[in-house]
Amino acid sequence: MSKILYRSSTNDTTDSKSGSEESFREEWLPPLAPIALKGYKASTRHKLMTEELSNNIRNLLPPRLQLFDEWSLVYSMDQDGISINTLYSKCNLNHQLNELKRQKQLEKGYGDHIVSQMILTNGHVHDNKRPLGYVMVIRDSKGNRFGCYLNEHLHPMEHRRYYGNGECFLWKLEKIHKNSTQDTDLDHHRFKAFMYTGINDNIIYSNHDFIAIGSSKGQNGLWIGSNLLEGVSYRCDTFGNEVLNGIGDRGDSSSFGDSVVGKFKILGLEIWRIGTLE
C-alpha cells in the first residue's frame, strides 16, 4: 500500500490518514517547528535533502520523532567519500557520540577540551535508549530521488539476520510532467511512501557486500551494492512498493522474467539522524 502526499507552499499536507486520532491532532495540537538540517559543509556541491522532502517524511514518522526539529547529517557521499565501510563507521552510535562530544569541545574551548579528555574513558560503549531514526536519500544518474526511513542505524551483520521494525518504510519522489505555456521547469515531483505491510519481517539486512531494505522471493525493495555506485529496486511484499527509481510500477525499469526491476547508478547518497544522542 502506498501513501501519496502533496505539499503546498503553505505547508498544508493531504494524505491517506483518517480517523479521530488524526482529527484530534490537527485540531488541537500546535504546529510543529520547522526542521533545521544540520551537517552540510559550505563546500558541499550536491545537497539531496530539502525542507519540503524532510517535511513529507516527517509526517510519516512515529509521533515521538516528529517532535524533533533538528536533523543531523550522519553520512554524505559528497562529503565523506564513496565507501560502505565509511558509511557503517559514520552510522555507528559510538562514532556519532564521539563526533557530538568533539563538536561540543570545540565550541567550549581548549580548557574544557582538556578536562573532558581527562574524564572520558576510552572504549566507552554507547547504550542509547533515546528514540532515534534514520533517513536515507539516494539520487541516481537520471535525477530520481528515493530512499527509506529506518528505525535503526545501518550496521554489518555477521550472520544472515534481518533487523528493523514496522516503523520502517520506503519512499520516492515521482516526477510529474505538467503542461505549461510558460518557459519554466515543467518537472514537478510527488512524494510517495510505501509502508510496512506485515507480510514478512524482511525489513533491513546489511553486510559488507550490500545493503538490502525489504525482500520477497529474493528480490529487494531497495538494494545497494558494496561499491555504493549501483543499485536495484524491485517490488517486494515487505512494503508493497513500486519500483523506486521510476514513475508508477515501471518508469525507468525493465522486465526480468515475471518481475519488474529498476536498475540505477548512484550519484549521491546521504543518511540523516533524527533524535538526540544525549
From TrEMBL:
The keyword Oxidoreductase does not apply. Its main location: mitochondrion. One of its GO terms (cellular component) is nucleus. PANTHER family: MUSTARD, ISOFORM V, NUCLEOLAR PROTEIN 7/ESTROGEN RECEPTOR COACTIVATOR-RELATED. It comes from Candida tenuis (strain ATCC 10573 / BCRC 21748 / CBS 615 / JCM 9827 / NBRC 10315 / NRRL Y-1498 / VKM Y-70). Residues 1-25 are annotated as: Disordered. Pfam families: TLD. InterPro entries: TLDc_dom (IPR006571). This is Oxidation resistance protein 1. Residues 14-25 have a biased composition (Basic and acidic residues). It is found in: Mitochondrion. Residues 47-275 form the TLDc domain. Keywords: Mitochondrion. It comes from the Eukaryota. GO terms for biological process: response to oxidative stress.
